[in-house]
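Translate structure to sequence.
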C-alpha cells in the first residue's frame, strides 16, 4: 500500500520549500506578448524544477510513501487562449525538464496523478462547459504525456467527478471525445452531493472508479467496508492496476476524536461534514481506511505530506 499526498510538500515548519508559482489572468493580459512569454516561461520552468526537487525528496522515503498528486498549475494559465498560443512557441524548450521528471518518477516508483478542478464538468448540459472540461483534461493529459505517461492503461491517474445534469450518459458522450492518452489516464470519483458510488459505477467499463470513503460516508451515512460487493466492482474497473482510494475526515471539533462518528447524533449539517481536517486524529477512522488493503490511499488532508507521514507511522506502529 502506498500513501500519497496532494500538491503541496511541507517541511516541519509548515513551509513549502518547492512551491509552484502562478499568476493571474488579469496580470498576464495586462502585459505585451514579450512580457507574457517571459512571465509564463519563467513560472513553468520554476514549477518543473521544483517538481523534480519534490520527487527527489520522495525518492529518499520508503517506497510506501512515494505517491503524489501534482498541482494543476504546473503550466500556469495554459488553457487561456492567449497563453496557449505563446506556450506553443517555447514548450519544446521545456521538454527536457518534463522528461527528467517522468524518467526519475518511474525509476523511483513514484505514483503520480492530477485532479482537475471542480469546474471540469464532463456531464454538464451546457456544451460550452463540456468543451472547457475536455480542454482542461487534455491540458493535464499533455503534461503527463510530456513526462512519458499515457502510453499504457493507468500508468498515470487524472481524476474527476461525474457531476452534471446529464449524468452518466453525458459523461459517456464526453469521454468518447477525449484523446486515447486521456482516456487511458482518466478516473472518476464518487462525491458527497451529486454522484454516489452507485452512480459512478455506471462508468466501470469506461474507466477506473476511485472510491472516496469520506464522500460516501457524508452522502450515505455508511461506513463502507472492504467486503461490500461494490468494492469488487471498483477493483475490477482498474483491470489489474492497483486501485486508488481517497481518504479524508471531517474537521477537528466536528467529529469525536475516538470511535466511528454517527451523523444522526452529531447534529451537524452535511456541508460542515464535507470540510477536511488538518490531520488524521481519529484512530477508528484510520483503521477503517487502512482496512482497504488492496488499495493505495491518496490522503486528502490540509497538512498534506505531514499528515500522510503520521498516518504511515500509525499504520506501522500505532496499532501495536
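Result:
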Amino acid at each position: 500500500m502506498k500513501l500519497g499526498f496532494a500538491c503541496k510538500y511541507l517541511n516541519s515548519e509548515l513551509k513549502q520549500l518547492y512551491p509552484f508559482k502562478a499568476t493571474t489572468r488579469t496580470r498576464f493580459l495586462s502585459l505585451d506578448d514579450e512580457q507574457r512569454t517571459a512571465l509564463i516561461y519563467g513560472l513553468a520552468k520554476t514549477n518543473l524544477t521544483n517538481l523534480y526537487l519534490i520527487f527527489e525528496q520522495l525518492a529518499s522515503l520508503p517506497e510506501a510513501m512515494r505517491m503524489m498528486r501534482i498541482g494543476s498549475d504546473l503550466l500556469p494559465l495554459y488553457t487561456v487562449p492567449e497563453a496557449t498560443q505563446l506556450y506553443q512557441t517555447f514548450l519544446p524548450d521545456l521538454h527536457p525538464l518534463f522528461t527528467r521528471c517522468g524518467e526519475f518518477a518511474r525509476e523511483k516508483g513514484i505514483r503520480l496523478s492530477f485532479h482537475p478542478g471542480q469546474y471540469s464538468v464532463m456531464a454538464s448540459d451546457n456544451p460550452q462547459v463540456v468543451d472547457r472540461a475536455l480542454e482542461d483534461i487534455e491540458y493535464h493529459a499533455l503534461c503527463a504525456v510530456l513526462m512519458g505517461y499515457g502510453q499504457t492503461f493507468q500508468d498515470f491517474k487524472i481524476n474527476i467527478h461525474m457531476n452534471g445534469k446529464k449524468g452518466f450518459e453525458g459523461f459517456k458522450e464526453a469521454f468518447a471525445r477525449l484523446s486515447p492518452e486521456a482516456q487511458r489516464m482518466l478516473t472518476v470519483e464518487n462525491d458527497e452531493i451529486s454522484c454516489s458510488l452507485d452512480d459512478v459505477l455506471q462508468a466501470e467499463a469506461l474507466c477506473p472508479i476511485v472510491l472516496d470513503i469520506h464522500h460516501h460516508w457524508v452522502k450515505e451515512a455508511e461506513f463502507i467496508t472492504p467486503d461490500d460487493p461494490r468494492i469488487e466492482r471498483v477493483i475490477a474497473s482498474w483491470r489489474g492496476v492497483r486501485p486508488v482510494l481517497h481518504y479524508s475526515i471531517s474537521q477537528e471539533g466536528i467529529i469525536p476524536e475516538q470511535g466511528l462518528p454517527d451523523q444522526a447524533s452529531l447534529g451537524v449539517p452535511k456541508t460542515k461534514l464535507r470540510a477536511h481536517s488538518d490531520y488524521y486524529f481519529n484512530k477508528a477512522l484510520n483503521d477503517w481506511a487502512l482496512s482497504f488493503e488492496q488499495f493505495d490511499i491518496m490522503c486528502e488532508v490540509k497538512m498534506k505530506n505531514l499528515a500522510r507521514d503520521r498516518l504511515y507511522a500509525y499504520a506501522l506502529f500505532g496499532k501495536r
